[in-house]
Design a protein that fits this description.
globular; mainly alpha; three-stranded mixed sheet; 16 helices; two-stranded parallel ribbon; single chain; 356 residues
C-alpha cells in the first residue's frame, strides 16, 4: 500500500508560484448566463415554496413543520445572498446592467443594500491581508501592539467586540437587520483605514429601506404583521448567523496572512489569507461554494458554480488553508495579529505567552 503524499508547504513560495495559480483560476472566470438563470430560478422557486409552507404552518399552528423548515429556508436565503454577492463582483451575468438589476432585486430578500455593499466588499477584496488598509467590510482585527496602545476602556470594548458569541450570535443579526439601514463607520481603525468617499451611499441604503417598507408593508397588510414577523424575521436571523460564521472563518484562522503595504502582494494575500472551508456537499450547495474562499479571493470574477471545477483542476488548491468544521472551531478564541509570530493569537496567549 502506497503511503499518502505529503501535504505541500506553501509558505515562502516565490511570487511566480502565486501568479501561476492566479493564471489557472483566470481560466474559469466569466458567467454562463443559462446556468446562472437556471440556478437562480430553481433556488427562488424553492425559497418561495418554503416561505409558503412556513406561512401555512404559522396559520394552522403546525409548529413542528415550522421548526423543521426554518433552517433550510435560512440556507436558501444564504444561497440567494451568494447570487447577489456574485452580481456585486460582476460574475453572475455578462453585463454590468444585468448584474446590477438582479443584485438590487435580490437585496429586497437579503436586506443588504446592493450598491453600498458592492463598493465596500470590493474594497475588502482589494485590501484583504493588508495591515495598512484594514477596515473595509471585514471582521476588525488589531495587532498586539495596537491593542496594547489602547486605553483600558478601548481594550475592554475590543475584547467584548471579539467575543464570538456576541459578535456572531447577536452582532450579525443586529448588523443585517438594523445597522445596514444606516451608514456604518468602523469603531476601531478609522485612523488606519480612513473611509473612502463612496458615491451614492445614502441612495443605496435608503433606496432599499424604502423598498423594504413598501414590500414588507404590503406583505404584512395581506398576511398579518405577526405572521410576517414569525415567517421572515427568523429566516433573516438564521441567514445572518450562517453568513456571519462563514465570513468570520474565511479570514480568521491561526495561520492566516497579513503584511504591511511594502511587503503586501495581492495574489499571495488572497491565497494565504483566505481559507478553504471543506464542507459537506449539501451545506456547500446551500452556501454557494463560498467555502472555497481562497479561489474566490484570487479571482472574484469566477461565479459560484465554477469554483469547484477550478479547485478540482489544480491539486495544490485542495491543500491551501484547508479546514473542516472541527478545525474551524479552534479559530473562535483568536483575536489579535502577532506581527512577530505572524499568526493570529488569543487574548490568553497575549496575556500569558508562557502558558500558550
Amino acid at each position: 500500500m502506497l503511503a499518502p503524499a505529503p501535504i505541500p508547504e506553501f509558505k515562502n513560495k516565490p511570487p511566480e508560484y502565486f501568479k501561476s495559480l492566479a493564471d489557472h483560476c483566470a481560466e474559469f472566470k466569466g458567467a454562463d448566463t443559462k446556468r446562472s438563470i437556471a440556478q437562480m430560478s430553481m433556488t427562488l422557486a424553492l425559497f418561495a415554496a418554503a416561505l409558503a409552507l412556513l406561512t401555512l404552518s404559522v396559520q394552522t399552528g403546525n409548529w413542528l413543520l415550522y421548526a423543521l423548515l426554518l433552517v433550510p429556508t435560512g440556507g436558501l436565503l444564504t444561497r440567494i445572498f451568494i447570487f447577489q454577492h456574485d452580481c456585486g463582483h460582476g460574475s453572475y451575468f455578462k453585463t454590468r446592467k444585468a448584474n446590477d438589476m438582479v443584485g438590487r432585486a435580490l437585496s429586497v430578500l437579503t436586506w443588504t443594500p446592493y450598491s453600498f455593499w458592492r463598493r465596500t466588499h470590493n474594497l475588502h477584496h482589494a485590501s484583504s491581508g493588508n495591515l495598512d488598509k484594514r477596515g473595509y467590510g471585514g471582521i476588525e482585527t488589531l495587532t498586539v501592539k495596537e491593542f496594547k496602545a489602547f486605553s483600558p476602556a478601548k481594550q475592554r470594548f475590543y475584547r467584548l467586540y471579539r467575543n464570538a458569541l456576541l459578535l456572531l450570535g447577536l452582532g450579525t443579526p443586529f448588523f443585517v437587520i438594523v445597522m445596514q439601514r444606516f451608514v456604518v463607520t468602523e469603531p476601531f481603525l478609522p485612523e488606519i483605514a480612513p473611509k473612502a468617499n463612496m458615491k451614492n451611499v445614502w441612495q443605496s441604503i435608503h433606496g432599499l429601506n424604502l423598498a423594504l417598507l413598501l414590500v414588507y408593508g404590503l406583505a404584512g397588510f395581506m398576511l398579518g404583521f405577526t405572521t410576517l414577523a414569525l415567517v421572515y424575521l427568523p429566516v433573516v436571523i438564521i441567514t445572518s448567523w450562517i453568513g456571519g460564521w462563514l465570513f468570520y472563518i474565511q479570514h480568521q484562522f491561526e495561520n492566516t496572512h497579513w503584511d504591511r503595504q511594502e511587503n503586501w502582494s495581492y495574489n499571495e494575500a488572497a491565497l494565504m489569507g483566505s481559507s478553504y472551508y471543506d464542507l459537506p456537499p449539501v451545506i456547500q450547495w446551500f452556501t454557494g461554494n463560498i467555502g472555497l474562499h481562497h479561489i474566490h479571493h484570487l479571482n472574484a470574477t469566477i461565479p459560484n458554480y465554477k469554483l469547484q471545477a477550478c479547485l478540482d483542476a489544480h491539486p495544490d488548491l485542495k491543500y491551501l488553508n484547508h479546514m473542516g468544521f472541527k478545525d474551524s472551531l479552534k479559530s473562535i478564541k483568536l483575536a489579535l495579529w502577532d506581527e512577530t509570530k505572524r499568526k493570529l493569537i488569543s487574548f490568553k496567549e497575549m496575556d500569558n505567552p508562557a502558558a500558550a
